[in-house]
Amino acid sequence: MERVGLYPGTFDPVTIGHMDIISRALRLYDRLIIGVAANEAKGPLFSLEERVETVRETVKNIAGEGLAQFEVRPFDGLLMHFAEKCGASAIIRGLRAVSDFEFEFQMASMNEKLNPDIETVFLMADVRHQAVASRLVKEIAKLGGDVSAFVTPEVREKLLEKFK
Hints:
Elements: E1 4-9, H1 16-25, E2 31-37, H2 48-60, E3 69-75, H3 79-86, E4 90-95, H4 98-114, E5 119-124, H5 134-142, H6 153-162
């Protein structure tokens, strides 16, 4: 039976912290679906299409032989409905700090009530990336700071274009 993992997020923008979780998840599953949430309530800087394409471009640089096949798919609506549609057996969530855990614990508990057959798997962020958050990366870029340590060169260029 194929093991399908789903890593959902807004990815506005995709950071090296996201890439760390993705690269590790690619070793754990046969197929990894990276679900890019529309999440208009967060007021994303990048359009859904831009985020999907950026994640696709970035992940293709780390995917390879011996790792899971991956696909990047946009979604809107309830995560569990999307997970069921994808045939996912697990939802992957990254944890950076204790503050993430409380929110993620609540989400995992609610998701378990919606579908007890889909597990939530938590991956701890690498200590080098624990402070990296898309929200902070956008703020640094907006204020003219260097975000090179937090995103790929391609994502850095896209941020610079947005804030010109």
